[in-house]
Amino acid sequence: MEQKQTIENAIIVGGGTAGWLAAAMLSSYCPEINFKVIEPIDSKIIGVGEGSWPSLTKELMALQINPEALGITMKIGVEYLDWGGQEEILSNRYFHPFLLRKPIRRIGISSSHSIEWQNFNHYWTVNHPYDIWKQAASKKKARSLGVHVNTQRLAWALKARALLNENCKLLSATVKKVNVENNNIISVETESGSVVTGDYWIDATGFKKILASNLKIEEQDFSDRIKVDTAITVNVQSEEENNAAWTQALAMPAGWAWKIATKGNISYGYVYSSKYTSDRKARKLLKEISNTKIKPHKIKWKPKIVTKPYQPNCTLVGLSCGFLEPLEAMSSQMMMKNIKITVKLLKQKAKSHQAFEEIQQKANERWLPWVNKAAAYIAFHYAVSKREGKFWQDYRDFANEYEEMLEIAQLAAFRKHEDALFKGAPFSVASWQVVLAGAEAVR
Ligand SMILES: Cc1cc2nc3c(=O)[nH]c(=O)nc-3n(C[C@H](O)[C@H](O)[C@H](O)COP(=O)(O)OP(=O)(O)OC[C@H]3O[C@@H](n4cnc5c(N)ncnc54)[C@H](O)[C@@H]3O)c2cc1C
User: Fold this and answer.
1) What residue ranges line ligand 1, CB within 6 angstroms?
2) What is the domain-level CATH number for residue 17?
3) DSSP-based three-state secondary structure for 422
4) According to the model, what pLDDT value does residue 196 have?
5) What does pTM read for this prediction?
6) Which of 54, 43, 168 is nearest to 101 (CA)?
């Protein structure tokens, strides 16, 4: 069957953060297209308190979503605790701030710490976190900051925003069959027996990949460089807000643990490799950190990413596109990237099918190199640590052979930030330097 040259109806399947963010953005930026979101009545989403990149903050502001109603806290960066593994290092912590755009000139553990803490400490010591948003927003600084957000509340807010647009409708249903011809999705059938047709599709069904699993997709397996594959999480109600302005990432025997505070709630999670520890041991450690008896929720995944998120008439958005691990919150960045490119694709399709295909091809070609650089950066955090234990030692042994990571790390150490390896990469030379400095790998 020939592909239709214009797009009148686009269908988004899945009502998690990815589905509703796609719905809110696409229906706002492509008003000429009608969107339908298929969301199960008993929709279950990956709902952990999460940290995002500034790109999500910018978009929430553009969509005029009120952050206070969401219990959002600002995220000025990530505090890494115990990653060095050397007790003599300045309290064994370092900070990766978002506002650090330019490479550090004089790199060294003490200088980088003082620069960072001086610049960013006042955001939370002087102000109440919720005033920061207002203050920062009024100064247009919020655009450079990320947010901590409860995923479920974010999905609800995005849903409310998307459904304000007349060209976005909800269909409460569960997809049970996907009809495909020549790798093009023609229609889906729901459990209640209705058939939904569409010209373009968004797979936002999370790890289930309901649409994508019917297409000819390939995935790259990252388990050599991304060793964690399991997370256990708990949410604890709390009025504690001291640490609300950044994510804490605490190094652990077989991975790391997060602490993320949103308004009235703290999310704890231990992200670990199932090869190096047991669920029982992990639960014990999480209990100690979180100081709660609440039974944690367990999530398991294979660190794999789809090689081409832009299929002939479908984009894979969110977890359906794959997942590495939560360190450095790459998922929200991937999600945003894929939605933005889809906006471009849908707009272009109305003008020229050839241009649409060109954008699609280019975006697919650039995708994997970009993801590989993100994976290299994530692996780098573990590789430069001097922590003891088999998990950490194995990471270092592997990293000695991981050429792309070594190459970029070397450039970062010598501040060769003009190099093509950093062009269009998800993390700047300054971000690499922060990790190098934090682990006292350079002075
Ligand atoms: C442990 C962990 C920690 C994370 N931490 C972070 C972080 O700090 N920062 C960050 O940016 N990201 C993080 N992420 C990723 C983030 O959670 C996701 O990118 C984000 O929530 C988007 O999820 P999603 O909407 O793709 O999938 P989900 O939330 O799983 O939503 C899937 C939707 O599809 C629907 N669905 C499923 N089957 C069907 C069907 N047959 N028919 C119709 N609909 C269907 C479901 O009901 C649901 O509505 C983390 C992920 C994990 C696993």
Assistant:
1) 13-19, 38-40, 43-46, 48, 50-52, 151, 174-175, 204-206, 208, 210, 231, 269, 299, 318-320, 326, 329, 331-332, 335
2) 3.50.50.60
3) helix
4) 98
5) 0.91
6) 54
